[in-house]
Amino acid sequence: MTDVELTRALERGEIVNENFHHISHLQVAWVYLTESSSVLEAAAKMRHTLRRLAAVAGEPQKYHQTITLFWVHLLSRAHAVDGGRRLEDVLKANPQLLAKDFPLAYYSTERLFSDEARTSWVEPDVKPLSIDAIETCSSSPSCDAPNWSLPG
User: N- or C-end of the chain: fewer Cβ atoms within 10 A?
Assistant: First the structure.
């Protein structure tokens, strides 16, 4: 199944939560970044899709805003640098993206898994990101061309 096919199947409700793993999240985010006119739009699509998946699974509390935005923004930088690359190539060049717990390099466990982080964007407390993910939560179109860089 291609990334686009996975995304469409997820949107149609054909993918169950148990079969939707970290790499699947990255694949869908990459498709949304490719299909969207802005990071804001891609993030909104990702939020909608993941909230729906969690609700259908009967676990709406599983959706996590900060984690979702963290991953969308990291991928958006790679996509902006060379949108013609395949996600597979990006992941080979940035293997840290395959680590589901990679956000813990930037967040303490307490902060990342707080109620606040689950429902809204919170800034990292271990080390700063070189992205301004809060911009994506605003309605401002100015976040279409941010100056983000992938963490090393």
Answer: C
Give the sign of the dihedral formed by CA 145, CA 130, CA 149, CA 114. negative
Specify the pLDDT at position 85. 79
High-pLDDT (> 70) share of the chain, %: 84
Let me know: does 47 contact 54? Beta carbons within 8 Å: no
pLDDT digits (tens, 9 = 90+) for 38-76: 999 999 999 999 999 999 989 999 999 999 999 999 899
Here the tokens at position 105 are 């390099």
Locate tokens 């983000």: which residue? 148
The whole-model pTM stands at: 0.81
In terms of phi and psi (left: phi > 0; alpha: psi -120 to 50; beta: otherwise), the region of 13 is left
Three-class SS state of 103: helix
